[in-house]
Amino acid sequence: MTGPLLIAAVLLVVSWTVATAMHLQERRPDWHWYLTGYPRTALRVVFTWRKVAHLNDLTVSHKPNRLLLGDLAVKGEPLRTKAPRCSFPRPTPNGLSLRVRLHAGQTPAPFLTAADALAHAWRMHAVRVVSPERGVVVITATASDPLAHPDRPMGEVSASLLSAVLGALETGGAWVMDFRRVPHWLIVGATRSGKSTLIARVITELAPQPVALVGIDCKGGMELGLFEQRLSVLATCRREATAVLGALVVDMQDRMRTCRAAGARSIWDLPEKERPVPVVVIVDELAELYLTNGSKEQRAEAEQCSTYLLRLAQLGAALGVHLLVAGQRVGSDLGPGVTALRAQLGGRICHRVNDPATAEMALGDLNKDAVAVAQSITEAEQGVAVTTGELGGWMRGRSQLTTPAQAQVTAAEYAGMAPRLPGVVRALEDLEGGGRA
Ligand SMILES: Nc1ncnc2c1ncn2[C@@H]1O[C@H](COP(=O)(O)OP(=O)(O)OP(=O)(O)O)[C@@H](O)[C@H]1O
């Protein structure tokens, strides 16, 4: 009797364990990883490190080369290789990471080359190698592709003013655009790479917040027009854009005076009741603001527009005026103001690009490694981008797909939240009175 009972009990325990594991995997993939995948993989890394390092030329020779004659080791002493010391793998929500201390004479290059081999040896989805300081490389391995489910980033994200959860990063964590931390952002990418989807996502996230959204879409408002109900102002041609940006510069000067009178260094130091509403200016297709037909009038307008944008970028951070600028290209060929503007846009997001120069322009001045990674994004990877992170680092991320219809619904839902910007609206109305372009 005890035999069947025992079998039944074992079956019960096994099925309960399997059910719990499946539930965890579905609901809390990070816990599932910590409890099952991480211990196994950490041990695999520790026990295979020496061998893997040896096979991938990550070791140094223990004995000096003077014992070698051509390819032969003389004196019959076997050459002993020494793997660099690595820390015990630290768990991350979707993988693990370890620090490797290089031997004298070693460089991070062979570790970068060996990334694929390490991923295979450790049965991981991908391995990334960075060198945060001289003599050290950090190897980060991810167990599954978090970019396959950008709508399900792991870990908690605290919702804060002026921050938007865009999707997931390759670490599995949330990809957050926080304008309080990084005040201005540049988004580049070829056509159909995911720029508009990302903008739609940002607007969807900011719509419920007490933030004024100003749209500048010189393609006749075709993209940002979808969100018009939630926008405080929408400019649909360069003439309107110049008027709107000029009025924002005046508004910014008012803010400056308010701060000075209160002895505050930024609007965030002002008492809440006196604090002006933060503004995010969204520019879709930057090139439209700079391109001219060569006429004197158009060149003057483009120059004026560029000066206003630059001024907002230079002074806006502390005064609660933020820029989110998107375009297919941001080259100096658009005009001299573009390079200066780009330097002010500290946050960079680079989708798939058509030419290496665009990736270089978007990321090259901040991080050279990131340029090569951005260039490797394929056409099938819509929404995937390389984004700059903290301390000059970078990361791949994928935005959560937000369709125009979804964004439109959200914009309509929060239409009543759109703060009024009387000075800016007046500037646009004055222009209409004088005849729109
Ligand atoms: N994060 C994403 N996940 C899945 N699919 C995406 C994502 N982002 C974009 N796509 C797909 O790619 C298509 C093109 O995206 P989007 O319109 O955002 O590109 P774009 O860079 O703005 O192009 P254009 O410059 O021509 O306006 C979308 O219709 C959508 O199907």
Structure overview:
The protein has 2 domains: 15-144, Threonyl-tRNA Synthetase, Chain A, domain 2 (2-Layer Sandwich), CATH 3.30.980; 149-433, Rossmann fold (3-Layer(aba) Sandwich). 41% of the residues lie in helices and 20% in strands. It has 437 residues and is α/β, with parallel strands linked by helices. It has helices spanning 2-27, 29-55, 109-113, 115-121, 195-206, 238-262, 287-290, 296-319, 336-344, 356-364, 368-375, 404-413, 422-433; strands spanning 60-61, 68-69, 72-73, 81-82, 85-86, 90-92, 95-101, 126-133, 136-142, 163-169, 174-178, 184-188, 212-217, 233-235, 279-284, 321-327, 347-350, 384-388, 394-399. The strands form 4 sheets. Strands 11-10-19-18-17-12-16-15-13-14 form a 10-stranded mixed beta sheet. The mean pLDDT is 87. α5 runs parallel beside α12. It has 13 helices and 19 strands. It starts with a helix and ends with a helix. Bound molecules: adenosine-5'-triphosphate. Adenosine-5'-triphosphate binds next to α5 and β19. Residues 150, 189, 191-197, 382-383, 398-399, 401 line the site of adenosine-5'-triphosphate.
